[in-house]
Amino acid sequence: MADTTDIERALLMLATELKRLEAEYNMYFAGRLPKPPAETRSRVEAMIKQLDRSSIQNYGDRFRFTSLQSRFSSLVDLWDRGLRAREEGRAGPFVHKRPPAAPPPPPAAAKRPDAKVEHTTAFHDPTKEMEKLQELYERVVEARRSVGDDPVPFNKFADLVKSQVKKLKTGGAEVAFRVSVKDGKVNFTAKAVKK
């Protein structure tokens, strides 16, 4: 019957060798070792056989040995599956799957972020639609203040709207104005629309 300290020493050595064997297999499957660690594996197997044959009286030592033995057998199963997969040329348990690639960015035309539309209105004759013109002006002023710009005078704004309506209006069409905020800037656009 082996001495208690000898068994504890042997279990400590077995745990150390098992960690070393696991590290060597990890290095092998990562491509840092040219061949599997057969020597270390046979040394660990011999240590397990020797401890298995000896009589371990202490329940704590017996439990520790059984834990190390089952860990070794599960790791051996994993390593053997990895070696078999590598020999067969397929992905094994040690091949890390890469996360799916991010979808390609949209083309430049579709890439622009949507502008936050603050207000939209249409004019047939701004001089006769003063309430709509005043509301549009207030929305432009609000949008400009939200991005830190100074408001424009109402008379300049009204002249701009009138000139755009005169320039874009054809036949019985109206001119639509849109106030939007995009990339921290206020966009004020005009477009001819049919009734």
SSE layout:
Blueprint: H1 4-30, H2 38-53, H3 59-88, H4 108-111, E1 116-123, H5 130-146, H6 154-168, E2 174-182, E3 185-193
Antiparallel strand pairs: 1-2, 2-3
Question: Can you summarize this structure?
Answer:
This protein is of the alpha+beta class and 195 residues long.
Plain-language structure description:
The protein has 195 residues and is of the alpha+beta class. The protein folds into 2 domains: 4-88; 108-193. Helix content is 56%, strand content 13%. The protein contains 6 helices and 3 strands; from the N terminus they run ααααβααββ. The chain has helices at 4-30, 38-53, 59-88, 108-111, 130-146, 154-168; strands spanning 116-123, 174-182, 185-193. A 3-stranded antiparallel beta sheet has the order 1-2-3. A hairpin with a 2-residue loop joins strand 2 (174-182) and strand 3 (185-193). Helix 1 (4-30) runs antiparallel to helix 2 and helix 1 (4-30) runs parallel beside helix 3 (59-88). It starts with a helix and ends with a strand. The mean pLDDT is 84.
The whole-number mean of residue pLDDT values reads 84
Number of strands: 3
| Beta strand % | 5-15%
Query: Per the principal axes of the C-alpha atoms, what is the gross shape?
Result: rod-shaped
Strand-pairing-aware structural class: alpha+beta
Q: Largest sheet, if any?
A: 3 strands, antiparallel
Walk across the major sheet and give the strand order: 1-2-3
Amino- and carboxy-terminal Cα gap: 104 Å
- Cα Rg: 39 Å
DSSP helical segment count: 6
Poorly predicted parts:
none
Please write the string of helix (H) and strand (E) elements. HHHHEHHEE
